[in-house]
Amino acid sequence: MPSVSGRTIYFGRSDRANKYMDQVFHAKKTTEEAINFLEREELKKGSQANFISQCLILTRRSFVNMYRDLGYYWSARGSLLMFTASFLTIMAIGGFPSFVEDMKVFQRERLNGHYQSAAFVVGNTVSSTPFLLVISLIPELITYYLVGLQQGCAQFIYFALTLLACMMLVESLMLIVASIMPNFLMGLITGAGIQGLMILSGGFRLPHDLPLVFWRYPLYYIAFHRYAYQGLFKNEFEGLTFPNGQVLQGGGPAYIKGEEILRIIWQVEMRYRSGWILPCYLQW
């Protein structure tokens, strides 16, 4: 039995067509009556959940989502490590005005022959290292054990040394920018732009997803964030196991090793311990 538009609305025996149509139109009529009743019904009284109830419900829902998402455990660790290294380094541009003042004094004294450039670099590095150590160590002590990273002493020392090396690298970078561009505003923009490019190519995008021109060759290999991220990842994930989310989809082992996450998810180069390149990079 076709309709006016040509679509089939009943395909069966002819003696049962009337019974079928009665059931269909009766159900449709009943449904329309229920909808009309709900539209006419007015809520005489109602209340909205208070602020505390809203917070509790949203907290419970978020907790359930995190508990069910098995990839959240290793994903959260990776996000924390990247955020820590990126935030400390990008905020180091705040010391740029002092670098500009130091460069003005250095240029005047260097022209007068009081000392050589190497002596200025060594003295500036030695004097700034204790302050950089304090700046990097305080958030490390608060964050590292609070979020439940690996409890080993060697892992913590490696974590601290990597962040200290990152801070020293950024200080050196901003000193170079100050020697080229003495303007405060342009220097801050230039320093932040250079670090932004390094963050994008060093870990914000996975290595296999980077375009070959400029982003991978040569920026990926120049960016010190790449060595910091991969070193922190290997320092944290090696030796750990995590629940495998593929089990819920009907396949895969119950647990996944940290080495597999490093190799497959984060695309970390496993040939060497990336973080130990940072001190050599700093000397270069």
TrEMBL record:
Residue intervals of the ABC-2 type transporter transmembrane domain: 77-237
Subcellular locations according to the entry: Membrane
Location (main, coarse): membrane
One Pfam family named in its UniProt record: ABC2_membrane
Membrane-spanning residues: 80-100, 120-147, 156-178, 184-206
InterPro entries tied to this protein: ABC2_TM, Plant_ABCG
Superkingdom, taxonomy of origin: Eukaryota
Membrane topology: Multi-pass membrane protein
Entry keyword annotation includes Transmembrane helix: yes
Assigned GO CC terms: membrane
Keyword Transport: yes
Alphabetic keyword roster: Membrane, Transmembrane, Transmembrane helix, Transport
GO terms for MF: ABC-type transporter activity
Entry's family note: Belongs to the ABC transporter superfamily. ABCG family. Eye pigment precursor importer (TC 3.A.1.204) subfamily.
Record-given protein name: ABC-2 type transporter transmembrane domain-containing protein
Organism: Populus deltoides (Eastern poplar)
